[in-house]
Design brief:
Elements: E1 11-14, E2 20-27, E3 32-37, E4 42-46, H1 47-55, E5 59-62, E6 82-85, E7 88-91
Antiparallel strand pairs: 1-2, 1-5, 2-3, 3-4, 6-7
Length: 104
């Protein structure tokens, strides 16, 4: 089986253990592939290792996960941008138009 060329954004799975990962960078000149596992861990792989693992049947194409929270540190609160300060509920998000004089 010929190894597919890694393409940024494509997802794959290691058959042993089932680790799901995405190709996040590919450097043809350097011969390296940067992959990010579902849990957020980033590793670099040589193109020779990539091809060898495909020939051995250790890798397979996979669909992207439906749950994208694996590599994202999410707060369990409904709206983490709000907090209580001195007894009042305040929105801590910055106003993107603050400080702009619209009439200049």
């Amino acid at each position: 089986m010929t190894a597919p060329l890694p393409s940024i954004g494509d997802w794959y799975r290691q058959k042993e253990g089932g680790a799901l990962f995405e190709v996040v960078a590919y450097d043809d000149d350097d011969g390296t592939i940067e992959i990010q596992y579902f849990d957020g861990t980033v590793e670099e792989m040589d193109i020779e290792d990539w091809e060898g693992q495909w020939e051995d049947g250790a890798l397979e194409s996979a669909d992207p996960p439906e749950d994208w929270s694996g590599s994202v540190d999410l707060d369990s609160d409904e709206d983490s941008s709000r907090t209580e300060v001195n007894g009042s509920d305040r929105d801590l998000r910055a106003n993107p138009l603050e400080g702009i004089d619209l009439f200049e």
